Amino acid sequence: MKKWFGPTPPAPPSPKLLQKEWRKTPQLEKDDYLQYLLDYQPDRKDVEHIRILLHGPCDAGKSSFINSVETTLRGRMTGQALASVGQNSFTTQYRTHKIQKTKPGSFYPFVFNDIMGLEQDEGFVWDRDFHKSIGICVDDIKMAMEGHVKDGYVFNPLSRFTSADQFYNDSPTVNDQTHVLVCVVSGSTVNLMSDEVMKKMRDVRLAARDLGIPQMAILTKIDEACAEVQSDLQVVYRSKFVQKQMQILSEALGVPLNCIFPVKNYHCEIDRDNDIEKLILMALKQMIDFGEDFVNNFVKTCKSE
To answer: pLDDT tens-digit profile of 31-61?
Structure first.
């Protein structure tokens, strides 16, 4: 008998992009964000700037994010925050990064602090030629959030920062303290991070909570994590993979999904890109808004006491 029907064909693969964006984004153009940031000034006269502290695993893109923000705001490629590619932390010194406006000596009223990355162990790994630092102490991050760490302090994974250090600030003001804590995690490795690193990030988050500091997270390297996003950055909010990575990060750290922003830092580009910058600006505006709320609350609380 003639066989009319063959085996059932396999189901087609599930599309990697959704038909509609899973997050509704503000209907603002890049120039709208730029003007907002150019005009921004803290409401309180005694607050000089919003201080944004970046933390997270090594090689997540903390320094690159600062450079990407500066590139976006200054309209040219910059590299103020030294960045590197590798598994160990490149940033060792506590430093405040300011971003210059159009006129020399005029700066945006928000600053960044980029600190040594969190790693699985604290201390040094030795080899035949040299040693490599492998992570900051969580307690040092807590001291930085409280405003006790002065610019220029060099983090030492073998020795915790104490009040006896010459870089200890014994009377921090509202301008020294962290106003927004931002966790920076690579979108290509968020599901591969060790339990120990995740625990350290949660510990930092709990310390920020106790200080009343608002928290956010940015998911970097989304182009490396998703081929569709690499081809077209505008489909980021249609990517199932990016959405899944954000959900993993949210569940692991307890950061609400609406406080997590996917971004792509400038990396191999030598010219500016409108799609990169719009995602950067969207995240930056949220940081400023969160910081503004915090300093207003902080000053009112201090006065009421």
So the answer is: 999 999 999 999 999 999 999 999 999 889 9
The least confident of 12-26, 188-202, 238-252 is 12-26
Query: What is the rounded CA–CA span in Å between residue 12 and residue 14?
Result: 6
CATH architecture of 47-304: 3-Layer(aba) Sandwich (3.40)
Angle at 273 between CA 267 and CA 224, to 5 degrees: 40
Q: Which amino acid is present at 248?
A: I
Domain coordinates in residue numbering, the chain: 47-304
DSSP string, 76-119: S----S----SSS----B-EEEP-B-SSTT-B-SEEEEE-PPB-
- Model confidence at 147, in pLDDT bands (50, 70, 90)? very high
- 218: amino acid identity, one letter: I
